[in-house]
Write a structure and sequence with these properties.
- The structure is a single chain.
- By secondary structure, the protein is of the alpha/beta class.
- The chain has two domains: about 150 residues, Rossmann fold (3-Layer(aba) Sandwich), CATH 3.40.50.10740; about 160 residues, Glucose Oxidase, domain 1, CATH 3.50.30.
- The chain has nine helices and 16 strands.
- An eight-stranded mixed β-sheet has the order 6-16-15-10-11-12-13-9, sandwiched between helices. A six-stranded mixed β-sheet has the order 2-1-3-4-5-14, with helices on both faces. Strands 7-8 form a two-stranded antiparallel sheet.
- β3, α4 and β4 form a beta-alpha-beta unit.
- The longest helix has 13 residues.
- It is globular.
- The relative contact order is 0.15.
Length: about 325
């Protein structure tokens, strides 16, 4: 499929914030709105909000119709350049049967978020060819400290057009920062993990692994032929769960055409180790001879870099591993 790249941000652009999974009311319990507004003002971006972002039902979300309406309104509004999600959750895949793919294709715009938003992003790419972006939510910009790298990567991906050379973060965090901005722990980085040495380039498919797998067997699953997989999972994905989810993905049609695998950093509660991850990867003959790089800066720890789903990237795994986003 030919990838369609949306126009990048320019100062003065209008961003629409929508809640395709959890409601904004969930995150407003710990209100960091003023800090978020300040950060977007510094970047020269204006914020607006979907009509239904604060609706909340018994599952902490809103009706399918409300969420679909806000997405359609964002794509159809000629003043809106980009769309950010409030936060992740569990239910954005509920929207897929009701989305107007022709409307989305006719109005290519930046869409950025991560975690549960993976279902929307990969479905949009599969149905329309539109490149979307795995990166911080609107709410992520409320992080007071240890946010500079995440914001720098966001700006490099969404304002710039040059290739992005991603480098390992020197430190990271894994905490509920939104509840306690003062009691945070900074963990020294131990670099990326070169699990299988080789080099390759391809078209990025991925995001949150268990959410991506929800698309299997539907027209919303992107082709794995020629794909460079970037996948991650959260604290609920312990080693056996991650192994099962990865095996499922690697048994998909087209998996024999995968070019390489890049795995995001695991949260500490998952209890994943480098040795266990190497064992999991080594089970799969479909990955034989391919580059596999792990402990990379995306997923549910911080910082995270912003990458294009449907964009092009190259990875070289060796003594000094590199990851370059060549087109975004």
């Amino acid at each position: 499929m030919l990838s369609i790249y949306p126009p990048k941000f320019r100062r003065g652009d209008l961003v629409r914030v929508v809640a395709p999974a959890l409601s904004r009311a969930v995150v407003m319990e710990h209100d960091h709105t003023s800090r978020i507004e300040g950060r977007f003002a510094e970047m020269g971006l204006r914020l607006s909000f979907g009509e239904h972002v604060d609706e909340m039902d018994g599952l902490l979300s809103s009706s399918v119709q409300s969420r679909v309406d806000d997405l359609h309104a964002a794509f159809s509004d000629p003043e809106v350049t980009g769309i950010l999600t409030v936060i992740g959750g569990f239910s954005s895949n509920e929207l897929l049967p009701y989305l107007d793919w022709e409307l989305i294709a006719a109005n290519p715009k930046i869409l950025c978020g991560y975690s549960d938003i993976t279902a929307l992003q990969n479905a949009i790419y599969a149905r329309t060819g539109l490149v979307t972006y795995s990166g911080p939510h609107w709410s992520t910009f409320g992080m007071r400290d240890h946010f500079a790298e995440t914001q720098a990567w966001f700006m490099e991906a969404l304002f710039g057009g040059e290739p992005m050379d991603v480098r390992p973060a020197t430190a990271w965090t894994d905490d509920a920062w939104f509840r306690d901005q003062d009691g945070r722990t900074v963990i020294p980085g131990d670099g990326w993990w070169p699990l299988q040495r080789s080099a390759a380039s391809g078209r990025i498919v991925g995001g949150n692994l268990c959410t991506l797998n929800l698309l299997q067997g539907t027209a919303n699953m992107p082709s794995l032929e020629g794909a460079l997989l970037l996948v991650e999972d959260d604290f609920e994905s312990h080693p056996a769960t991650f192994a099962r989810e990865l095996a499922s993905l690697l048994q998909m049609p087209g998996a024999s055409g995968i070019r390489g695998l890049v795995i995001g950093r695991f949260q500490q509660a998952s209890r994943m180790t480098r040795d266990l991850l190497a064992l999991i990867v080594a089970k799969h003959s479909v990955l034989s001879g391919l580059p596999v790089l792990a402990n990379v800066d995306f997923g549910h720890t911080s910082p995270i870099f912003t990458f294009p789903i449907g964009g092009d990237a190259g990875v070289s795994v060796g003594e000094s591993s590199t990851l370059r986003i060549t087109r975004h």
